[in-house]
């Protein structure tokens, strides 16, 4: 493998991610190869471990690497055309971007859940329940279920009968979709988390079904705060 370059400490994680991506494309890291540790990469590239961590997080989101707890980080594929296509069509998602989006969602969606509980119709409750059922199916199939997750949250917003809230949710839908995929890829490596995430959504659904606004608001806030805390661990 070629000697890794030294990066200026002011350089961003994107440049580290881009360099590692090129290494994978060139075959320097073959499928199944274990990448150096955070410390080793940081020392070799001349950047902080937090920069390396963000770079690896973005590559993981693109599906180029997988992180196995206690074992390390491994290359999953290195087909040049596929990597380039994926990289160009999907903006990097970092942990910081996910945290910032969760902060916005906590402010918006906790109140949205309260309104949904107070205003929802039977048809709207059915749509929320259908999304929850899709999440349960994804869980049993060991899939991420990120699309069902978004469908659930949007259905809650629709049940609020507030067009402005629905417009806000639509405007952040792309960012939410990317963050859901990225966060679930990370959180699903933690034992018990997939089941707990499903239960949290089920609690939100039950509160809305019972028309309990305060409980729905608390359940939604608890869910989003929990995701944020796990992402910060």
TrEMBL record:
Residues 10-78 form the HTH gntR-type domain. The keyword Cell inner membrane does not apply. It holds the Pfam family GntR. Keywords: DNA-binding, Transcription, Transcription regulation. Transmembrane segments: none annotated. One of its GO terms (molecular function) is DNA binding. This is FCD domain protein. It comes from Aneurinibacillus aneurinilyticus ATCC 12856. The lineage of its organism: Bacteria, Bacillati, Bacillota, Bacilli, Bacillales.
């Amino acid at each position: 493998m070629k000697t890794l370059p030294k990066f200026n400490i002011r350089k961003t994680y994107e440049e580290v991610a881009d360099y590692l991506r090129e290494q994978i494309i060139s075959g320097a890291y073959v499928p199944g190869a274990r990448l150096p540790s955070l410390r080793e990469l940081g020392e070799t590239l001349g950047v902080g471990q937090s920069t390396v961590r963000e770079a690896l997080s973005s590559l993981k989101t693109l599906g180029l690497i997988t992180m196995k707890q206690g074992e390390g980080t491994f290359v999953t594929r290195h087909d040049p055309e596929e990597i380039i296509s994926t990289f160009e069509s999907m903006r990097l998602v970092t942990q910081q971007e996910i945290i910032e989006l969760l902060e916005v969602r906590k402010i918006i969606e906790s109140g949205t859940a309260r309104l949904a509980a107070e205003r929802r119709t039977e048809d709207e409750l059915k749509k929320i329940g259908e999304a929850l059922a899709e999440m349960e199916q994804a869980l049993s199939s060991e899939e991420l279920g990120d699309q069902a997750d978004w469908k659930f949250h949007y259905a809650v917003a629709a049940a609020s009968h507030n067009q402005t809230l629905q417009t806000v949710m639509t405007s952040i839908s792309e960012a939410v979709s990317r963050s859901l995929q990225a966060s679930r890829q990370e959180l699903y490596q933690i034992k018990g988390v997939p089941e707990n995430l499903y239960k949290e959504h089920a609690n939100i659904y039950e509160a809305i079904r019972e028309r309990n606004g305060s409980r729905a608001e608390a359940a939604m806030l608890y869910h989003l705060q929990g995701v944020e805390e796990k992402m910060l661990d």
